Each structure stands twice: as structure tokens, then as C-alpha cells.
Amino acid sequence: MKQEIRECLLTVEEFEDFYAQKVAALTGQLYVMLGDLHEAQDVVQEAFVKGWTRRRQLDRDGHPEAWIRTVAWRLAVSRWRGRRRSAEAWKRGGAPPPHVEAPGPEQVVLVGALRELPAQQRRTLTLHYLCDLTVEQISGETGMSPSTVKTHLVRGRAALADRLHDPRTEEGPHV
């Protein structure tokens, strides 16, 4: 019995290989979902730490990348909620929250446009287009119904098309 349990745990080397192969892609995916590279790096690292302590679950589920991505997303959502509560507490206390610098001009246009979308649309678009997941896989990972996933994809694409529309590419009136 102990041998069976040991066999289903990822070894240190297997986990290190998994980390080396997936950390950059997962960080990029979370960056697109969150619009904040430092936050993406933090939550992905924290998710891998949690994954290390749950190697048995990672191996048993057979989808360790999805598990890490889901945990990272949940960590980010938890942080957002904490920041919102903190901002509300600052407002109740009458003091303004500390000043935070605005994103610099180096922000990628697409990430900027994605940040304007509702979080679930942004997440769904990222999972579909960046992570190359099917509607069914997204449904399984997020807990949304397949029809809700499809709705988020349609609405997200439409919203991005409006935001990424480049007026310089339109032809003006011919004189």
C-alpha cells in the first residue's frame, strides 16, 4: 500500500521538470487574464508552492497545468477582494488610499483592452485563445456551464473588436 501511494506522488525531479516547462506559459496566461505581470508572477509562484504540497492531487487529477492555473486565478481573485475591502475601509476612515502609479506606456495594447473587459470574459478569452482550451475544458476548469462559456467568448470578442478598432485603417471620404 505504501509503495502504491509513493508511486502516485510526483518526484522532486518530475515536479521540477513540470515547473520548468510550465512556469513561463502559466505566468503569461495569468498576465493576460490579470493585466499585471507582477501579480501574475506572484500568484503563479504561490500556486506552484501549493502544488508542491499537493503533488498527490496534481498527479491523480492528470491536469496539473489546469490545477496550477485555477489555483493562481483563485489567489488573484482573493487578493482583489482583499484590496477592495481595504479600499472600502480607507473610504470609511476618511483617509485616501495610498497613491498607486498608473500603468506605464509599455503596456501592451491587447492587455490594456483586455483589462477593460469583465474579469470572467477576460479569463474565458485567455483560456480559449492563449491556453487553447475547448469550451468543455473551460467549463470544467471554471465551473461555468458550456453555454455561459460561449456567451463570455462571444461578448468578449465583440468587446475586444470595439476596443481594438484602429481608426487609422478606415478609409476616409474621398475628395
TrEMBL record:
Cross-referenced PROSITE patterns: SIGMA70_ECF
Classification via CDD domains: Sigma70_r4 (cd06171)
Keywords attached to this entry: DNA-binding, Sigma factor, Transcription, Transcription regulation
Transmembrane stretches, start-end: none
Pfam families for this protein: Sigma70_r2, Sigma70_r4_2
All copies of domain RNA polymerase sigma-70 region, residue ranges: 26-85
Keyword Cell division on entry: no
Ranges where the RNA polymerase sigma factor 70 region 4 type domain occurs: 111-160
InterPro entries in UniProt: RNA_pol_sigma-70-like, RNA_pol_sigma-70_dom, RNA_pol_sigma-E_actinobac, RNA_pol_sigma70_ECF_CS, RNA_pol_sigma70_r2, RNA_pol_sigma70_r4_t2, RNA_pol_sigma_r2, RNA_pol_sigma_r3/r4-like
Family named by the database record: Belongs to the sigma-70 factor family. ECF subfamily.
Name of the protein in its database record: RNA polymerase sigma factor
